[in-house]
């Protein structure tokens, strides 16, 4: 975040405490509510920069009411804030203007009522719209496996400024990480993804397809980064922020040089060499988790072919055996 720009979560906190909450109290008394900044937006994951201010960034938050209060008071709260919020807050316009697409807006000054980004709703509506299920009810295996890790990150990251009932705090706690059996299964799936392509780095290169080999390596590096985050109990974000999230891991310092070198290499032999270093590092980390019996972290030839691989399916199978 640029030093001249207030981080989005800090701006949200101030906006709630200094502008929104006083107005709610003045007009609706002690209206029970929850105030948070979760969901979409780079600031929720802590990755916003000055560039983020060009769309859907600024003084914004969610204001959750009970279902009855949302029906009874929600529209009035929205209108009141539109009429009474200051036009600017810490120098940032509170009005969001459309750039042609009503779904995407940017901060812009206005002389009239502000089109603000204080989302007034209820938790049941918000969870259904953003997760597809309500975590305050039973979270099924299908819920866990069908929800993108980006979405789970958006709900569990961000910040909670006020929680009258404690329901959002509880729901975020339930979603903080996968149940252990689900986690093991997801790790097994990630190892299996790697096993499906690890031999293709050399196979592409062997037939002179260095570009194809490079594409395979890029895919494998992405999957190794995702695996690293999953092994550290972090929900991997989507591609724009995957590298940023990965580099926050202390583990990243030891493996990043090999991953970077693998992507930058111009021959498949070099790619394979650097990938082998990364494979062994992840395999060692797997053993440290003690989720299975220790497995040999070294690479070896791909059956009778001269390609060095980890045989990542060994790790997938070991995790699945434990599950069974």
Explain what this protein looks like in three dimensions.
This protein is of the alpha+beta class. It folds into two domains: 8-174; 180-323, Four Helix Bundle (Hemerythrin (Met), subunit A) (Up-down Bundle), CATH 1.20.120. Helices cover 53% and strands 12% of the residues. The protein is built from 13 helices and ten strands. The chain has helices at 8-28, 67-84, 123-130, 141-146, 149-156, 167-174, 180-197, 200-206, 210-231, 239-247, 252-264, 268-289, 313-323, and strands spanning 34-37, 60-65, 88-89, 92-93, 96-98, 105-107, 117-122, 159-163, 300-302, 305-309. Strand 3 (88-89) and strand 4 (92-93) form a beta hairpin.
Supply the key terms.
10 strands; 2 domains; 12% strand; single chain; 53% helix; elongated; Four Helix Bundle (Hemerythrin (Met), subunit A); alpha+beta; two-stranded antiparallel ribbon
Overall number of structural domains: 2
Rough outline: elongated
Radius of gyration from the alpha-carbon trace, in angstroms: 24 Å
Number of helices: 13
Percent range for β-strand residues: 5-15%
Uncertain segments of ≥5 residues (pLDDT<50)?
A: none
- The rounded distance between the terminal residues' Cα atoms is 46 Å
Task: Write the element-wise H/E pattern from the N-terminal end onward.
Answer: HEEHEEEEEHHHEHHHHHHHEEH
Can you give the mean pLDDT? 95
Main sheet overview: 4 strands, mixed
Q: Kindly state the number of beta strands.
A: 10
Tell me roughly what share of residues is in helical segments: 40-55%
Structural class: alpha+beta
- Spatial order of strands in the largest sheet: 7-2-1-8
């Amino acid at each position: 975040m640029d030093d001249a720009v207030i981080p989005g979560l800090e701006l949200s906190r101030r906006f709630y405490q200094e502008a929104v909450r006083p107005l709610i109290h003045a007009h609706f008394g002690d209206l029970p509510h929850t105030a948070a900044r979760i969901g979409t937006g780079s600031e929720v994951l802590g990755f916003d920069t000055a560039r983020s201010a060009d769309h859907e960034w600024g003084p914004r938050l969610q204001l959750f009411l009970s279902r009855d209060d949302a029906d009874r008071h929600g529209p009035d709260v929205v209108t009141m804030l539109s009429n009474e919020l200051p036009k600017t807050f810490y120098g940032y316009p509170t009005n969001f203007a459309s750039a042609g697409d009503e779904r995407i807006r940017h901060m812009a000054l206005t002389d009239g009522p502000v089109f603000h980004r204080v989302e007034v709703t209820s938790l049941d509506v918000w969870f259904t719209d953003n997760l597809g299920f309500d975590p305050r009810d039973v979270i099924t295996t299908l819920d866990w496996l069908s929800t993108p890790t980006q979405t789970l990150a958006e709900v569990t990251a961000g910040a909670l400024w006020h929680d009258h009932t404690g329901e959002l705090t509880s729901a975020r706690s339930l979603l903080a990480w996968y149940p252990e059996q689900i986690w093991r299964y997801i790790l097994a799936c990630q190892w299996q993804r790697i096993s499906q392509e690890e031999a293709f780095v050399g196979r592409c290169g062997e037939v002179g397809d260095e570009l194809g080999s490079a594409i395979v390596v890029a895919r494998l590096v992405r999957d190794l980064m995702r695996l690293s985050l999953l092994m550290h109990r972090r929900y991997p974000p989507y591609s724009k922020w995957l590298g940023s999230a990965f580099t926050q891991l202390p583990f990243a310092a030891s493996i990043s040089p090999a991953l970077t070198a693998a992507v930058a290499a111009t021959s498949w032999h070099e790619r394979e060499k650097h990938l082998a270093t990364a494979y062994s590092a992840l395999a060692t980390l797997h053993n440290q988790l003690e989720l299975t019996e220790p497995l040999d972290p070294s690479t070896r030839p791909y059956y009778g072919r001269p390609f060095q691989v980890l045989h990542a399916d060994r790790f997938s199978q070991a995790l699945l055996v434990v599950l069974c």
